[in-house]
């Protein structure tokens, strides 16, 4: 009986460690996405923000040309950062 109990405890401890690591990774990813979201909000024009809010209310998907326009500006600060290190 003690052997079964110790085996189960070991398995539970292993699972807890795996879950702790997953939680840590998800927290890091969430933080990164929040930073990216804040950057995109600062780079978006008031018209783009208003259109996005309207799309959220109606439930329609965002236009592809709009989303491409908002994904390009964050690449520029990243390239500026790599340019200053060289």
UniProtKB/TrEMBL annotation:
InterPro entries listed in its UniProt record: TSC22/Bun, TSC22/BUN_CS
Chief location category: cytoplasm
Any Pfam family: TSC22
Keywords annotated in UniProt: Coiled coil, Cytoplasm, Nucleus, Transcription, Transcription regulation
Region (Disordered): 52-86
Protein location: Cytoplasm; Nucleus
Coiled coil region boundaries: 9-43
Similarity remark: Belongs to the TSC-22/Dip/Bun family.
Official protein name in the record: TSC22 domain family protein 1
Gene this protein is translated from: Tsc22d1
């Amino acid at each position: 009986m003690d052997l079964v109990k110790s085996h189960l405890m070991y398995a539970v401890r292993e699972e807890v460690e795996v879950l702790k690591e997953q939680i840590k990774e998800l927290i890091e990813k969430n933080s990164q996405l929040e930073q990216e979201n804040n950057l995109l909000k600062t780079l978006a024009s008031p018209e783009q923000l208003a259109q996005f809010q309207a799309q959220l209310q109606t439930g329609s998907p965002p236009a592809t040309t709009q989303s491409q326009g908002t994904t390009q500006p964050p690449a520029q600060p990243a390239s500026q950062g790599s340019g200053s290190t060289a």
